[in-house]
Amino acid sequence: MKIVDIRETVVPIQSQIRNAFIDFSQMTVSVLALVTDVIRDGKPVVGFGFNSNGRYAPSGLLRDRFIPRLQAAAPQALLNDAGDNLDPARVWDVLMRNEKPGGHGERSVAVGVLDMAVWDAVAKIAGVPLYRLLADRYRVGVAEARVFVYAAGGYYYPGKDLATLQNEMAGYLDLGYSVVKMKIGGASLSDDLRRIEVVLKILKTPDQLAVDANGRFDLHTAVAYAQALAPYGLRWYEEAGDPLDYELQTKLAPHYPGAMATGENLFSLQDARNLIRYAGLRSDRDVLQFDCALSYGLVEYLRILDMLKEHGWSPARCIPHGGHQMSLNIAAGLGLGGNESYPGIFQPFGGFADGIPVQDSYVRLPEIPGIGFEAKSELFRVMKALTEAI
């Protein structure tokens, strides 16, 4: 078997929302189709991938560097020992040939897009959902029947008042979520506290609410927020400072006894390891949010999980960023602590399969081969457009 074509396009996901650091007025996503010569139901097996929200489409890197590198490889170099399926680790090695150590920036997003498409194809060729394939390979067949998900929203928006914020969060509860997250740091501390309090009024317990500063704060501001937030007993306080400022995170921890979360903007094993070594995180409560779609894909994510185990961290402390089906499969197949969700925003990429409801912040996965993109009609419509001429 072999890869016969790789196609990529850019899809806009712009909106007027903003967090404490950026707006999404020009945000884009790369969508990729990896076409194989394996035939199922009379059609070639196609693996699909895309990069997660919050990073722009890495089209230049894909088209100029990584897609040509993969297309130039000998077909046998990409296959498993049996020669009947792609080997994601061998594909990854080909993609990273002649790449220097370090520089774990946007190239990790491009590799992550291709890695996602490869795993989608691998599971389709094997004829099983990706989460079951992962459970069989890495967890002695044990897969989670459902995955914890929380609704991420609460963005700043022109004209958005407290009542609108409260109504937004109430809408997530109506959709079946019992845990929600909102943005902070884009307003004053006093204004953010009012925003938090109006959301808490519609929740049964404070630990149903998490807050996210998107790396906005210096140490002084991070501590001020920590001291103000601690009495509420929130689910977690997320990404207070720059993701690479491990000293800030270490100094912040004594001021916040509750859970903190970070990691969505770290894109490699090396950066994840430094976070665990030097950021003062606590394995009994803190949450790690590495997003495989942004960080070299699942091949690298598996290495990160091995590293975490060596340092005494459970995979249950991992709740990936991104709100997409790839991370949902990883969570179910590898026993992670859950997955983010974006109901109503970043469409059609946010959210999960059609017709499977969220119930008390848990969701099941579709029983179709691959990642399950075909079970999300709006998203698959975008992906299918890449292959209509096949």
Describe this structure in words.
This protein is α/β, with parallel strands linked by helices and 390 residues long. 35% of the residues lie in helices and 15% in strands. The protein has twelve helices and eleven strands. It has helices spanning 59-72, 88-95, 107-126, 130-138, 162-174, 189-200, 219-229, 246-252, 269-278, 298-310, 325-334, 377-384, and strands spanning 3-12, 28-40, 43-50, 147-152, 180-183, 209-212, 237-238, 260-262, 287-288, 339-341, 362-363. The strands form two sheets. Strands 4, 5, 6, 7, 8, 9, 10 and 11 form an eight-stranded mixed beta sheet that branches. Helix 7 packs parallel to helix 8 and helix 9 packs parallel to helix 10. The longest helix has 20 residues, at 107-126. It is globular.
